[in-house]
């Protein structure tokens, strides 16, 4: 029996937040917005690099990519400044997917400013999900003008959208071949019913023929169900067949997926999911693809204490 992968890992999708110092509307007070995982009250707590490093103990997680966490939308650069300070203090994260609103009048200016931070590699703007089937911002001319500006600033795009919207994403990727489109959360397959899996696979097949598309295998939890290797094996097998390991990346989606299992359990579970792959392909999935896509800085930092956190931001709210 093959040994499970125990080599270096770059976590391509994770979050930090300090709820005492900064504003995240969806994490404030008693607020609960619609979320595909249901009630997320359990993650309404500060989660910083020291917490992440503690959770990752025992695994060779050499770096991570911070993905915007729906910080105050009126201040997208404030989030990037804060997370850059965390990186300077703690060595994590090693790359940043920043916030930008592509349909706003100031989109080009925000993109230029975000690209000026040394760890920013991409931006995310969720295109909306009015009914799961209708047109989204990916078909809006203003949004598309903002998307067109990404290439000028050397930025990738992070797409979080359910699989029912991926036909629009395929058009965007085809029309803007110079911009790398990074599909978050495996295209959000949702439930594991046969009809859903057939529809999701067809949508992912459409994207797989486009060379400027890569996929983060993250956020695979199901509302009201425990995370399991058995439930996720068909997802991972399909993605491997369509994209190959060189276009797939592991992402923990922590602390959000911590609602369902520990980071140790998640990393161990994914090692089981890819156990049949050649070792080089496993390393590509866990490390090499993310290293190529995000060009992370300062890999290997493993210690951070509360005293090393950016205290000026803690007092700024």
From TrEMBL:
Domain Amidohydrolase-related: 10-295
Descriptive protein name: Amidohydrolase 2
Gene Ontology terms for molecular function: hydrolase activity
Origin superkingdom: Bacteria
Signal peptide region: none
Family (UniProt): Belongs to the metallo-dependent hydrolases superfamily.
Coiled-coil ranges (or none): none
Pfam families per the UniProt record, alphabetical: Amidohydro_2
């Amino acid at each position: 029996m093959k040994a499970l992968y125990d080599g270096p890992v770059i976590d391509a999708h994770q979050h930090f937040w300090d709820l005492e110092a900064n504003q995240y509307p969806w994490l404030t007070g008693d607020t609960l917005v619609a979320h595909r995982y249901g009630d997320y009250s359990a993650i309404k707590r500060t989660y910083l690099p020291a917490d992440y490093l503690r959770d990752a103990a025992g695994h060779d997680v050499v770096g991570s990519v911070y993905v915007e966490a729906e910080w105050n939308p009126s201040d997208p650069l404030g989030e990037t400044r804060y997370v850059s300070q965390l990186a300077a203090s703690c060595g994590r994260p090693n790359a940043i997917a920043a916030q930008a609103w592509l349909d706003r009048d100031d989109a080009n200016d925000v993109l230029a400013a975000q690209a000026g931070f040394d760890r920013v590699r991409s931006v995310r703007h969720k295109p909306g999900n009015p009914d799961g089937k209708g047109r989204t911002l990916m078909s809006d001319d203003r949004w598309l003008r903002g998307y067109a500006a990404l290439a000028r600033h050397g930025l990738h795009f992070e797409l979080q959208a359910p699989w029912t919207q991926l036909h629009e994403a395929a058009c965007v990727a085809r029309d803007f071949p110079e911009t790398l489109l990074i599909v978050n959360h495996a295209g959000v397959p949702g439930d594991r019913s046969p009809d859903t899996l057939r529809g999701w696979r067809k949508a992912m097949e459409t994207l797989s023929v486009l060379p400027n598309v890569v996929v983060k295998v993250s956020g695979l939890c199901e509302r009201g169900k425990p995370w399991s290797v058995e439930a996720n094996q068909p997802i991972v097998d399909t993605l491997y067949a369509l994209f190959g390991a060189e276009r797939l990346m592991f992402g923990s989606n922590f602390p959000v997926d911590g609602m369902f299992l520990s980071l140790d359990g998640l990393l161990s579970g994914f090692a089981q999911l890819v156990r049949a792959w050649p070792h080089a392909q496993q390393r590509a999935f866990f490390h090499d693809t993310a290293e190529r896509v995000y060009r992370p800085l300062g890999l290997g930092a493993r210690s951070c204490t509360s005293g090393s956190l950016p205290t000026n931001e803690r007092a700024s709210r």
